[in-house]
Amino acid sequence: MAGADPDTILTNITLIESLETTKSTSTEIQRQQLEAKETERTINLMREIYRRVAAEGATLYFLLIQLCIVDHMYQYSLESFQTFFFKAIENTDMNDDEEKRVIDLRFGIRMTIYRWVQRGLFVRHKQIFLTQLTFRLLQLAIIEGTEYDIQKMNFLIFCPQKKDIPLPVTLKKWMPETVWFSVQKLIEIEMFDQFAQHIEFGAAKRFEDWYNEQTPESEKLPLDWKKLENMPFEKLLVVRALRPDRTTTALDNFIRKVMPHGDDFVDCDSTSNSKQILESAYKDSTTTTPIYFILSPGVNPVEDVEYLARSMNLDTKKMLHTIALGQGQDKFANDKLDAGHREGLWVMLQNVHLMPRYLYELEKKLNAFASEGSNANFRLFLTSDPSNEIPIGLLEKSIKLTNEPPQGLKDNLKRAFSFFKKEEIEDKDPKIKTILFGLCYFHSVMCERRKFGTKGWNRFYPFSTGDLRDSSIVLQNYMDNNQASGKIPWDDLKYLFGEIMYGGHIVDDWDRRFCAIFLDNLMNDQLLDEAEMFPFIEGKSITFKAPTPLTHEGYIKYIEQDLPAETPLGYGLHPNAEIDYRTVQSQKLFEILVDLQPKGGGGGAGAGEDTKIKDFFDLVNNALGLEGLKVNLEDLAGKLDDQTRGPYQNAFMQECEKLNTLINGILRSLSDLDLAYKGELTMNEAMEALEDCIRLDRVPPQWKKIAYPSERPLISWTENIKARID
């Protein structure tokens, strides 16, 4: 433009076209800049909208990587988590409503991750993970309708006690002293400040009736406390204080109420059998992602893998190679792995915990396969008992599966009946359907009585679905053979079920006697006429009758709707039989929840900065005065001569010496900890472990080694030392 001739500028076509091009380019750039700003604004807006989804994903990941504290087998990698995270996003239906889309994504991710993780957890740990998930969502205000309160949460988890006020005489008839001490701590929460007075003076008889209910968590509390029906978390605190044995059941009820689609989480996979779960896991597996079966007594996953292969039209003799690991088997395992890598075979290595060193070689081999690229059909299946020697890397990349019976009669019965395919049930004779339903109930009772300890069985018996499968085959064969006579061979069936299939596990005479009597009560002609299935419940306000012949879905629906709430009566036991079992279950659950809580700082905090540690120092040094409780053994020995010193006196002297050793150990540990607080000693791992035990009211391991056997918490245990000496 600057070099153009002024006389010809208006006729310079090239210049004019160049200016037009420049103008249009400038206009296009301005338009693109506006579009870029609009796109940036939209991206920022959508980022904020979906930030909640990302935040929940991060929450889930940090929850599941904590599970290794519970058991070494629970190892999960970020890569595996991302696989299921993106799978959940892909499976969530699109929705133009952004808020609805976010809600759907959060639920889909939550459900997918929970289902993936819980399938690899033992039954006793599934509720722990679900409880952790629920509490974290409450803390982040993701669950609406229930406010997170740190004081209430601490009471639920720790259930502290306050022993200043003794149990009133009027309540001693029905209330344990420990419950009263828990109530005294509960009333420190603002809304419960009148609770103890109402128990003692307001309606003691009505509270006693509530306390004695079989399922108090489902009953309304007396007086104005019935308002807690609309405050599920606060009612959970009352159950924790008054009936700790019912806390685990109350937790399930709480999760059902407050968690969106809570029933889906509590009942996850309850109607799926092991074959269906394996089929689902296979779809998520790859050539570099093994399926890892964590074994429990009576479980044989080989049959499920063979069933899966046959369902995919694979020749199990050619395509599935099973090797039981042991000394010298590593070479054969490597040969089969190499063949599977090249030809797309299935390889199953059993009992890999027997060769922990080989597993590091296996891990390297799988990494090499991943870099080379395996045949797309290659799959690896592993089985082992729980073991701390399994490499973390192998566990992290695997899809873990357990196959324990679920907890509760309802879930066990649904799982047992779901073991049979729909087509198989539909084709059966109506009589066989009814007997098979009774057999599934019998199987569920046999399995679930184990949780009651010696009240259920005198020994632990590894009943499994294999017993149910074999019994059903025998049932079908005998019914086919007696079809012409029209009679049901009850005596033969009872003998086969009670003496061979299930009775083959039983070695105790009294257990065998119960099994026979239970079958006599169940397996008879009345079963075909809607008989009462719960044994020995005459006069009880509870019933569960055998249904008329139904479809497969009909039986599942009948179990879901008509089976009463969990009760020992369903197993032929007294209602109080579950108190010990549920109390221990509740204690273990909250002990693990305490272990999963974030730990405070270690060495820099002085004793005065930690109230619990300061109070324990005061208890040991002042309230109990352990130093002054030591027995003077020399003085005691001087009072005994050869005539008065016998076996009882010797045992007494040994116990006194043991108590002195224990007291010295306690005082020495606390003295070192106090010196560390003052900066005169370096805080070490043992001191930090001692701190944690004092905070958690647990007896430190180093004290347990030199102490007498006891299950008491730390404070009660320490007070008991003085009581023993006095």
Give the topology, please.
Elements: H1 13-64, H2 78-91, H3 98-118, H4 123-139, H5 150-158, H6 177-186, H7 195-202, H8 204-211, H9 232-242, H10 247-258, H11 262-266, H12 274-284, E1 291-294, H13 302-311, H14 316-319, E2 320-324, H15 330-343, E3 346-350, H16 356-372, E4 379-384, H17 392-397, E5 399-402, H18 409-418, H19 422-426, H20 430-448, H21 465-481, H22 490-501, H23 509-522, H24 552-562, H25 578-595, H26 611-623, H27 633-638, H28 647-677, H29 685-695, H30 701-704, H31 714-725
Parallel strand pairs: 1-4, 1-5, 2-3, 3-4
Helix pairs in contact: 1-3, 1-4, 2-3, 4-10, 4-25, 6-9, 9-10, 12-13, 18-20, 18-24, 20-21, 21-22, 22-23
Q: TL;DR?
A:
By secondary structure, the protein is mainly α.
| Distance from first to last alpha carbon | 110 Å
Number of strands: 5
CATH fold title of the largest domain: Helicase, Ruva Protein, domain 3
- Which runs of at least 5 residues are low in confidence (pLDDT < 50)? 601-609
**Based on the structure, what is the oligomeric state of the protein chains?**
single chain
CATH class of the largest domain: Mainly Alpha
Overall number of structural domains: 5
Question: Could you please describe the fold and organization of this structure?
Answer:
The chain is mainly α. The protein folds into 5 domains: 127 residues, Orthogonal Bundle (Helicase, Ruva Protein, domain 3); 109 residues, no CATH class; 100 residues, Rossmann fold (3-Layer(aba) Sandwich); 170 residues, Helicase, Ruva Protein, domain 3; 119 residues, Substrate Binding Domain Of Dnak, Chain:A, Domain 2 (Up-down Bundle). It has 31 helices and 5 strands. It is globular, with a radius of gyration of 33 Å. The N and C termini lie far apart (110 Å).
